[in-house]
Amino acid sequence: MEINLENKEFQNALELIENTNQTFFLTGKAGTGKSTFLKHIIKTVSKNFVVIAPTGIAAVNVNGVTIHSFFSFPLRPILPDDDDIKTFSKGSEKRSVIEAMDTLIIDEISMVRVDIIDAIDCSLRRNSGNPNLPFGGKQVVFVGDVFQLEPVTSSKTGEYEIIKEIYGNPYFFSAKVFKKINFCTVELLKVYRQTDLDFINLLDKVRIKEISQIDLDKINTRLISDKELINNEFTIMLSTTNDIANRVNQQKLIEISSKLFNYNAEISGVFDESKYPTDIELNLKVGAQVVFIKNDSEKKWFNGTIGKIEKLEDKKIIVKLEDGNTHDVEPVVWDNIKFQYNRILNKIESEVIGTFQQYPLKLAWAITIHKSQGLTFDKIIIDLGRGAFASGQAYVALSRARTIKGLFLKRRIFTTDIIVHNEVKKFAKSYNDETVIVESIKQGKELAENKDIVKEIFLKNPKLFVDLISRYYSLNDKLIEKYKDVWSWHSLAIFNNQPLSVESIEKFKDSWEWDTLSENKALPWSPELIEKFSDKWNWNRLSFNEALPWSIEFIERFSDKWDWEGLSSNEALTRSLKVILSYEDKWTWERLSYNEGLPWSYFIILLYSQKLDWKKLSENKAIPWDCKLIEEFKDNWDWSELSSNKALPWSIELIEKFKDNWNWNKLSSNSALPWNNKFFEKYLNEWDWSGLSNNVNILWTEQFIREYEEKWDWRLLSFNKSFPWNIEFIEQYIDKWNWLGFSSNENLPWSIGFFEKHEDKWLTDEKDWRNKRIFMFLSKNTSLPWSVKFINKFPEKWKPSEPIWKTLQPYVDDKMIELICNEKEKKCTR
C-alpha cells in the first residue's frame, strides 16, 4: 500500500512526529494503513527511532525488538516504580541507545498490558537523562487499535487481580503516566483493505458493538455447510485457539498421501524461539495449503496470500496461487536485530545479531485469530467454536477478509461473540479531537523554541542555573562528580529532589555541607547512618530534625551528643508523659512550652507550672484550651501571645470575660475570631487598624475599605490575600499600595498586561534592600503568568523557586546541564 499524504489524519500524525516531541496514539480500524505509515516515517523522518512490540513475531515483522528484551523487564506484573526496573550503567550500550533515542514506537499496543506502560515511563526516566518528565522527555508513539485483541491477564497466575486492584483494567491508556501529559489520538479513517462500503460499515458496527439484529443477519448469510467447507480451496480457517489450528493443519496434512518433505531453517547468531516467524522444521506435501508470511519484492505474492504446493524437491518449492499462476519460492531471511548507538554519527543503528532463513510459508488450512492480526486474506472461514472469549476477537476475525464474498462462517455469529468493554468505548470518544491535536502540535513546536530560550536564561543567570539544578533536579552521581565544583552543596544537601543514598553520602563526604545535611528530612535515617558519620553531623540541627527514627532507645544511644534545646522543640519525639519525665532535668523548658507535639493536658500544665515558660505556652495551639483553663491560670498567661492564638475557643463571651486583658493589636489580626459586621462594630473603638489590615477573615468589600479609607495600614493591606482584588480597585488607590506586598500576593489579578503596566514598580531602585526582595517574592508567587518567555524578560533578576523550576523543568535534561556547565563553568559558582 502506498502512503497517501493528502490524507488529513496522515498529515496530523506526520506533523506530530516531524516537528514535535509530543507523545500520541496512532490508531485506526483494520486496514487503514497504520503499518504502512510506520514504515514511511522510519524511512523518511530524520530522527533516531526505536521500534518495540509485545511479541517476538510482531517485533520481527516491524524490524524491532520485544518490549521485555529492550527494557529487561521481569516476566510478571510490574508495580509503578518497581525495584526490578533496571537502571542501566552510564556508558552501556542500552543506556546510550535510550539517551540518543528521539522517538520510541510501540506497535500492536492493544496487546500491551497497562503496567508495562508505567514501567516504560519509569525506565525512560531512570535511563534517558531526564528523570523529571513523563517518558524521560522522549516522544512515544503508540500504534494499534484498542478494539482489536486485548492484553492477556491470567487469573491463574494472579495477574488479573493485581492489575485490577492497581489500575481497574488492563488497557494501556489507563496507565498513570497519562495523567501527567496532554495525550492526543490520531485515528486513521480511510480503509484500504476493503473497498465494499457496505462491508466496511458492517465491520465498523462490529468493532464498536453497535450492531443490530438486521446487521448480524447480513453477516450470517455467509454461513456455509460442512460439504461446502470441504470443497473450499484456497481458503484459510481462523480459529480461537492454537490447539484447534494445529489439529486441523496436521490432520489435513496426514490426509494427503503424497511424500512428506522436510525443510529445516538455518539459524545463525542469536534468534529466540519465540521470534521464529514460521516452523523451524517445515513439513510439506504436494497439495498442502500454505500461506505466504512475507511480501515478495517483485509483488508476485503478499503477506497473507494463500497457495497450494504444486511441486516439491529437496531444495525447491513451487506454489500455485488461486489465479492459476505458479511460482518458485526461495528461502528468505528474517533478521533479529539489536539497537546500538553510533556516537560519531549521533545515530541509532540496528545491528543484526541473528538470522532465521526459511521458506516464507506456513501450513494454512487453519490459523489462530490472534496470529492473523495484521494479515489480509481473500477467503477465510471463521470458526468461533464455543464462542469468542476476548475483547476484539470477533472483529479481528471478520476484518481479515478483503470482501464479504470471501468471508465464510462455520457457525453463526451471535451478539455474545462480539465483546467490547466500556472502558475501550469511553476512551475512543477522544479520537481525532482537532482542538487537542492542534494544541499538541502547537505545544510541541513551542517546546523546541523554548529549549533554546532556557539555555539563554541559564547562561545569563548562572547562579539561577546552579541553584535550580542543585535544588530540584535529580542529579546522578556521575554529574555530581564531574561538576562538583559547580554545584551548590548547600542546596544539594537540603533541597535535592532525589533522596540521597548512603553510598552518595559516603562518596561525597568531603564535599557536603554537613550542617545543612543534618537538617535533611529525606535521608535514609537510621541509627547506623548517624553512627557512621557521627563526627560530621551538626548535632544541634540533627536534634531539631523530625525525620530521625525517634524513640527512648534512640535518644539514649546518643544521649551525650544531643542538643537538648533542639530536642525540646522537636515535635516528632515519642508523644508520652514518660518521655517528659525521663529527661525532666535536661529539657529546655522554654522550647518545650511551645512544642505542639507533646500530649498536653491540664495535669501536665499543673505538674510543671513552675518550669513552664508561660509566654511560649500562651502561643501553643495544642493546649486543650477552654474558659476554665484560661481563668485558672489568668495571672500566668502572656495575654499578648494569647490574643493572637487561633486555637482558643473564641466567642464574644470569651472576649467580654477578659476584655481588659487582651492585646487589641494582636486580637485585631487574629483571623479565628467570630468575624462579622455586628462583631466588628461592637468593638469599633477597640480595634487596632494595622492588625485589622492584615486580617484575612474580615468580610472584605470595596465599600467597607472605602468607608474606613483613612484608617487602614495600606502596606499591610497590600499583603492581604482576602481582598476583592480587581484592576479598577488597584488603579483607584495606585499611590497607596506597597509593591513589595503586591509581589508576594497570589490573589492579585495577575496577567502579562498587569505585570507590564506596572513594570517600573517591580524594577524600583535596588539600592534599597527592601526593593531587592521584590523579585525574591515575585519568584515564589505561584499566580504569576509563568512561561519561559516571561522569565526571559528579566533573566538576571529571578531567584530560585518552585514556580520558576516548574516552568523551566520540561526543557532541562542531562545534555543541557552538561552544555551549560561546559560553556560557563567558570561563572557557575556558588
Automatic annotation (TrEMBL):
Gene3D superfamilies: 2.30.30.940, P-loop containing nucleotide triphosphate hydrolases. The keyword Transcription regulation does not apply. Residues 15-197 form the DNA helicase Pif1-like DEAD-box helicase domain. GO terms for molecular function: DNA helicase activity. Keywords: ATP-binding, Helicase, Hydrolase, Nucleotide-binding. One of its GO terms (biological process) is telomere maintenance. Pfam families: PIF1. This is UvrD-like helicase family protein.
